[in-house]
Each structure stands twice: as structure tokens, then as C-alpha cells.
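Subject: Predicted fold for FAD binding domain-containing protein, 280 residues

User T.R. writes:
Posting the sequence so we have a shared reference for the thread.
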Amino acid sequence: MDLNTVLDVRDARSRVPWRQGDAWLGGGTYLFSEPQPHLRRLLDLSRMGWEPVRELPDGSLELAATCTIAQLSRFGKTWRAPAAPLVEQCCRAFLASFKIWNMATVGGNLCNALPAGPMISLTAALDGTCLLRAQDGSLRRVKVADLVTGAGRKDLAEGELLRSVTLPARSIASRTAFRQASLYGLGRSGALVIGVLDPVDGSLAVTVSAATVRPFRFWFPLPPDRDTLHDTIDATIGADDWFDDIHGLPAWRRHMALRFAEEIRRELTTRTEPNAGETA
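User M.O. replies:
I've generated the C-alpha cells; pasting them so everyone works from the same file.
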């Protein structure tokens, strides 16, 4: 879509002073999908030269905000980490055309803060931390699960830029389990739940997203039983936190999220519960 209110596009490397009507331009798949009458200038991040995916010396993984879904998918297919399958599972949750895959970015998906954003699901589940840069050059870090505060709402100041997301070594060395539901075969995610079992201390994290207006990450020092998991999720996610749109009613989303959470608990803990009498 033509944005006929935009009067100028600047290379973001020029560090021009931020002004009202500015917006960061990553892949542009959202910006150019609908009218943006409040915008007057775009600051293009495409030439920043950030390495899309970088494995750090401490074993963590850094995803640049400008990393495209296609780049992340290619990396995930050759990555040897135990959590590698989760990358492709979340990339496929886009159900988007190859054109979107080659333009949409990790950072754009996070900053749009839409409930069904699969990069939010991926990075929140793996306990990712965002690196944010303010207009004065100062930096701050915030967990992905805290960056998204509601449907389309995020903890970003005016002009603040998402530089990267770092996934800790412990998380990417963990066993993972993935569940997703949509009302339609090629529909937007109505519920997406991810489990992460820490190989060191046996702790379990269960992240509920898509079904809710923001991601909810539940961490248990030891895998909980069925009732504890159910009650914890139900007590934390309020009635207004379940998302409601044409892709699913809140009651259905809640049902699927709780069902998936239990399936994931059983899948990831069955090896450590030989006498539980349950099958995955």
C-alpha cells in the first residue's frame, strides 16, 4: 500500500533527530499493509549491517532486530542446539507467503506486539532479553515477556529502537515442546503454547501466547503436577487477558491453552515420571 502521507525516507545510519511522525522501517510488512496517516517520515534500518544471527562466546544467541524470518529459518535448519526445532516451528506459525518471509523481521514482529506474533512466542519462551536504544544513545534491557504489555501495546518509549534479542545458553540447551491451534487450516494462531525443560536443574517453563493479549511465561523450579499447572495458569491469566477476535473466542482459547499446557507437561516430564501411569 502507498503511504501518501510519508514525505521522506532516511537511512537510519544518519542518526537524524527524531521528530513527531517518524517511524522505524524494518521489513515494512506491517507498515505497508494498511494506512498510516500519522506518519510523515520513515527511518530505514535495512542498511544497518547488523549480523542476523550471532552465536556469542558464552553460548547465548543474539538475533538482530533486522533478521528476517527467512534468515532465521535457514539458521535454525542447520543449528545443532536442542532447542533448534522450536525455531522452525515458530517460523512456520506465520503461515505467510515467501514474500513476507523474506521481508518480515524478528524486531518488527516483536514491536507490533500482536498476540499471534510467533517471534514473540519463540523469544519469550526461551527467556529472551531485548536490547533497546533510546534517542540519547542510552541502552536498557527488558525481557521479551515484559516488552509486550497487551494487544498492540509494548514497553517502548518514543523513538526507542529494538536493537536485538538475546537468548540465554541455558534456554537453547533445553528440551522444548510446541503446540499450536488455529480455527482454520491456514489461519492465524488462536493458541500457541511452548514448554522448555532445563537440562541442568530440571525446572520447567510453560509460555502461553496467541490465546492471550500478551505472553505469559510460567516457571516452575520442579515440574508441577497436572492440577498445580492448571490452577497456576487459571489464577494468573484473568478473564480480560484471553484474546477475543474472529480467530477464536476467549473460552475456546482458554480451553486450548490449558489442554496444550498439560500435553506439554506430560511430554517433557514423562521420562522423569516412570510411575506416573501417564502416556504422552
